[in-house]
Every structure is written in structure tokens, then in C-alpha cells.
Design goal:
It comes from Phytohabitans rumicis. The chain has one domain: Rossmann fold. Helices cover 37% and strands 22% of the residues. Helix 2 runs parallel beside helix 8. It is globular and about 45 Å long. It contains eight helices and six strands; from the N terminus they run E-H-H-E-H-H-E-H-E-H-E-H-E-H. The two termini are 13 Å apart. The protein has a six-stranded parallel sheet with strand order 3-2-1-4-5-6, with helices on both faces.
Length: 183
């Protein structure tokens, strides 16, 4: 059987605070607990930059405004994972520089070193990190599962279309409860 890992993406406090859903973190916690209990590695991906944002071009529509801010950086507060789903010893945290969890991070190296061939995706936002990571992971020949209620988006209709129509073309889509019960 192919070894799997649970990816928990962009659940930094500053990100989660912008998506008010009181049930999201408890559901995500259920997935994380199930993974740890089953011995499935939990890997967190956070977006982060060096002081002064040297990785960010002003041409980048999503992150370019950061580069214009100058030398100040978000620091630890910007990359702090929400305490309700914080990493534990043994969990891996990778820092990415763009939307996909693979972009500018050492995620692929960590996965290959761990002989992981299947990824279980969760995170904020469905239309951002989850979509971008899913597409790149599929192109890298990883098996994929998306936990539909382990993802969150500002637009419920976009979330629905992605999880019901787009993601099933490249991934199995299930719920946290169903995945936890099967793990």
C-alpha cells in the first residue's frame, strides 16, 4: 500500500481569522488526530517570506503588495499556525513562497525522502492552496485525496464546484469523518 501524508495548508492564525467558520478547526483537528493515531505523517505548509520580501516581485498580483511595503516582514505572527491545530513534535512544517505548497518549499524533497506517494489535502483556501497544490501534486504523479470539509473557501459556491466537479477529476474527494473512519 502506498504511504500517505496529511497536508494541512495555510492554517496560519492570520489566514483562519479571515474565514469565520466555527466548525472548521474542530473538523480539521479530527483529521489531524486520526492521522497521528494511524501513524500517518502530518505535514504543515505555511506561506512565509524573508524580511524585505526578496522572494516577491511587484509584478505578482497576489503577493506583490508585500514587496512594496519595504523592509518590514510579517515575522513569526504571519507564519504562526492556529493554536487549535498546532504542530506537535514529529510533524513537519514547510514554508512556501507562493500559493502551491510545492512552490519555493522543500515539500517534494520531504515527501520523497519519506517515500510518500499519496497526499490527503486540507487547508484554506479551497480555491487557493488546495487547488494549486492538487494540480501540481497530480502533475508530480502523487495519489490524491481531498477532505472536502477539511477545506474552506470564502465563496461557498466556488468550494462546492471545486470539490464536486473539478477535484474528482484528479483526486478522491471525501469527508473528514469518512477518511478518519477508514484510516
Amino acid at each position: 500500500m502506498t504511504k500517505q501524508a496529511l497536508l494541512v495548508m495555510d492554517v496560519q492564525q492570520v489566514v483562519v481569522d479571515r474565514y469565520p467558520d466555527p466548525g472548521y478547526l474542530p473538523r480539521l483537528g479530527t483529521a489531524i488526530d486520526a492521522a497521528r493515531t494511524a501513524g500517518v505523517p502530518v505535514i504543515y505548509a505555511v506561506v512565509g517570506f524573508r524580511p524585505g520580501y526578496p522572494e516577491v516581485s511587484t509584478r505578482n498580483k497576489m503577493f506583490g503588495a508585500l514587496a512594496l511595503r519595504g523592509p518590514a516582514a510579517g515575522g513569526d505572527d504571519a507564519t504562526r499556525i492556529h493554536p487549535d491545530v498546532a504542530p506537535e513534535p514529529g510533524d513537519v512544517v514547510v514554508t512556501k513562497r507562493r500559493v502551491s505548497a510545492f512552490a519555493g518549499s522543500d515539500l517534494d524533497l520531504v515527501l520523497r525522502a519519506g517515500d510518500i506517494g499519496h497526499l490527503v489535502l486540507t487547508g484554506v483556501a479551497t480555491s487557493g492552496v488546495v487547488l494549486s497544490t492538487l494540480r501540481q501534486a497530480a502533475d508530480l504523479d502523487f495519489g490524491l485525496t481531498v477532505l472536502s470539509d477539511g477545506c474552506l473557501d470564502a465563496d461557498p459556491e466556488v468550494h462546492r464546484v471545486l470539490t464536486e466537479k473539478v477535484f474528482p477529476q484528479q483526486a478522491d474527494v471525501t469527508t473528514v469523518a469518512a477518511w478518519a473512519a477508514a484510516t
